[in-house]
């Protein structure tokens, strides 16, 4: 059982989702026979993560709910809280805001039984994400500010950059590129101190996006090149996709339409190789690129991106008619 679980985790980390799912299912059955309820619940929670990556919504929802209930029944309130936070992300992406809010508040109640700054931060971040999804950025800002305060008070240096990045996105939605740049530079400085290469790359690409809004193309190019170096050191396959989409945005902002479509076409190929989550993000980038092309690198484009993201996040890689997620995103943009 434990060995099967470890094999499944290794397969999941390698992107071998079918193999990972097989391992977790066998682990769950083995633990049920022993019996080892804690092992069975953990295996089910891991299986839910695989279903999420594969875009299997019904299976993911079923396993997340079962795992959260299982952890709570075992008295493992912290894992119950973590699982409910993942469930909240899933429900939010599906457009079930009330269900997502209920999951977040259930997680908050569990965190109250086993206080911990890290989970407290996650709860406040989810509250901010819900406010964003409901197109209420004014409510998201205090939630993220609270999360950042907890990070600083609790010494959670590793969590702070992601919170600062959310604050930067809210500033971008409001058209305040100066404040967004300040938040991102603070986040980047903290990430560099922690040595998190993938996080540094993501933040640097976000900074490139701010440069594009300011029509600072040399600054954007410099940020992209820096991000490429960070991604190479992080050895993360998502990096190539993120870089490609950012270059597509830059090409569109510069009016190089043919180059932008080339970048997007290659991003589509990379998305198919790196799994459902990456494909979803590619769809988001596609919608953003079209918004920039139609509205210019402006507050309008950022706002339209924010709204279109809610529609594209829940799309499967292929629908019943065989249309690619990119074509669906284009129709929504």
Q: Concise description?
A:
With 333 residues, the protein is mainly α. It has helices spanning 2-13, 17-33, 37-54, 57-74, 77-93, 97-113, 117-133, 137-154, 160-173, 177-194, 197-213, 217-234, 238-253, 257-274, 276-295, 299-312, 325-332.
Which key terms come to mind for this protein?
single chain, mainly alpha, 333 residues, 0% strand
Structural class: mainly alpha
Please provide the ordered H/E string of secondary-structure elements: HHHHHHHHHHHHHHHHH
Gyration radius, rounded: 20 Å
Report the biggest beta sheet as strand number plus sense, adding barrel if it closes. none
Q: What is the percent of helical residues?
A: over 70%
Net shape = globular
Strand content: under 5%
Mean pLDDT rating = 78
Individual helix count: 17
Distance between the termini: 46 Å
Number of strands: 0
Low-confidence stretches: 294-333
Outline the structure in words.
The structure is a single chain. The protein is mostly helical and 333 residues long. The chain is built from 17 helices and no strands. Helix 7 packs antiparallel against helix 8, helix 9 runs antiparallel to helix 10 and helix 13 packs antiparallel against helix 14. The longest helix is centred in the last third of the chain and has 20 residues. The radius of gyration is 20 Å and the shape is globular. It starts with a helix and ends with a helix. The C terminus is likely disordered.
């Amino acid at each position: 059982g434990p060995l099967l679980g470890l094999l499944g985790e290794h397969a999941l980390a390698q992107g071998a989702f079918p193999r990972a799912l097989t391992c977790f299912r066998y682990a769950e059955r083995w633990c049920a026979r022993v019996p080892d309820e804690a092992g069975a619940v953990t295996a089910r929670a891991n299986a839910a993560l695989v279903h999420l990556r594969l875009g299997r919504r019904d299976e993911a929802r079923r396993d997340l709910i079962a795992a959260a209930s299982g952890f709570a029944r075992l008295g493992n309130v912290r894992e119950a809280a973590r699982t409910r936070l993942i469930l909240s992300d899933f429900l939010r992406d599906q457009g079930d805001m009330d269900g997502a809010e209920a999951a977040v508040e259930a997680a908050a109640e569990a965190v109250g039984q086993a206080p911990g700054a890290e989970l407290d931060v996650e709860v406040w971040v989810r509250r901010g994400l819900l406010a964003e999804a409901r197109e209420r950025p004014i409510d998201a800002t205090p939630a993220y500010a609270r999360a950042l305060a907890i990070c600083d008070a609790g010494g959670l240096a590793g969590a702070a950059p992601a919170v600062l990045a959310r604050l930067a996105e809210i500033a971008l939605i409001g058209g305040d590129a100066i404040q967004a740049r300040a938040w991102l530079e603070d986040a980047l400085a903290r990430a560099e101190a922690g040595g998190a290469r993938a996080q540094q790359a993501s933040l640097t690409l976000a900074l490139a996006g701010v440069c594009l809004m300011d029509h600072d193309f040399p600054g954007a190019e410099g940020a992209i090149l820096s991000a490429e170096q960070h991604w190479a050191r992080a050895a993360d396959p998502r990096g190539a996709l993120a870089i490609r989409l950012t270059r597509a945005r830059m090409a569109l902002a510069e009016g190089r339409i043919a180059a932008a479509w080339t970048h997007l076409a290659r991003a589509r190929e990379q998305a198919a190789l790196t799994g459902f989550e990456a494909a979803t993000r590619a769809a988001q980038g596609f919608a953003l690129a079209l918004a920039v092309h139609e509205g210019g690198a402006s507050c309008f484009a950022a706002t339209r991106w924010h709204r279109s993201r809610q529609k594209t996040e829940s799309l499967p890689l292929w629908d019943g008619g065989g249309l690619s997620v990119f074509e669906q995103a284009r129709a929504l943009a």
